[in-house]
């Protein structure tokens, strides 16, 4: 299982997701362009020394990402989806994709994903923080596939 971030804009969110990946033993894919310099000290400050314990792959664009992940299912998490992540059967090889903080993913990227899921939230709010959403989604996917560490 992997987490993929499409054109992430906030270094702190990427750092938090890298730390999540390190803690749960999951690789992280970053689909460029990034909204910050990769050497940005905020990434390392948030990820701390955990960044040394996670496999990170950077991809020039979505096509390069899809080519690198091959036949793995790409599961998009979006507030626009109809199906809940809690009503979906995850598989160990799934790639959990999250869009950029300000706009999600464009329609052509969404159309190239194998499934779109949502994390249920209160109607009065717009969306969760990227790293929080990734943690909830990954936790459920690892739980379902009996892949949680420890």
UniProtKB/TrEMBL annotation:
UniProt cross-references to Pfam families, sorted A to Z: SpoU_methylase (PF00588)
GO cellular component terms given for this protein: cytoplasm
Record-linked HAMAP family: tRNA_methyltr_TrmL (MF_01885)
Family from the record: Belongs to the class IV-like SAM-binding methyltransferase superfamily. RNA methyltransferase TrmH family. TrmL subfamily.
Subunit structure: Homodimer.
Function statement: Methylates the ribose at the nucleotide 34 wobble position in the two leucyl isoacceptors tRNA(Leu)(CmAA) and tRNA(Leu)(cmnm5UmAA). Catalyzes the methyl transfer from S-adenosyl-L-methionine to the 2'-OH of the wobble nucleotide.
Protein name: tRNA (cytidine(34)-2'-O)-methyltransferase
Organism: Sphingomonas hengshuiensis
Gene name of the record: trmL
């Amino acid at each position: 299982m992997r987490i993929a971030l499409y054109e992430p804009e906030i270094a702190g969110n990427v750092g938090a997701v890298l730390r999540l990946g390190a803690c749960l033993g999951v690789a992280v894919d970053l689909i460029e362009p990034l909204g910050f310099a990769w050497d940005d000290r905020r990434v390392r400050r948030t990820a701390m020394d955990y960044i040394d314990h996670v496999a990170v792959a950077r991809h020039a664009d979505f096509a390069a990402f899809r080519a690198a992940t091959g036949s793995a299912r790409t599961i998009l998490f979006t507030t626009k989806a109809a199906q809940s992540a809690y009503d979906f059967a995850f598989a160990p090889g799934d790639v959990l994709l999250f869009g950029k903080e300000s706009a999600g993913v464009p329609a052509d990227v969404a159309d190239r994903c194998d499934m779109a899921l949502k994390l249920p939230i209160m109607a009065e709010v717009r969306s969760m923080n990227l790293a929080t959403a990734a943690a909830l989604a990954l936790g459920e996917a690892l739980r379902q596939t009996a892949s949680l560490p420890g």
